[in-house]
Amino acid sequence: MSYRVTVVCLGNICRSPIGEAVLRERVAAAGLADRVEVDSAGTGDWHLGHPADPRALAVLDAAGYAHDHVARQIAPHWMDGIDLLLAMDTANYRDLARVLPDGADRPELRMMRAFDPALAGCPEPSADLDVPDPYYGGPEGFDEVLHMIEQAADGLV
Question: Which of 15, 24, 26, 55 is flagged as catalytic?
Answer without folding.
Answer: 15
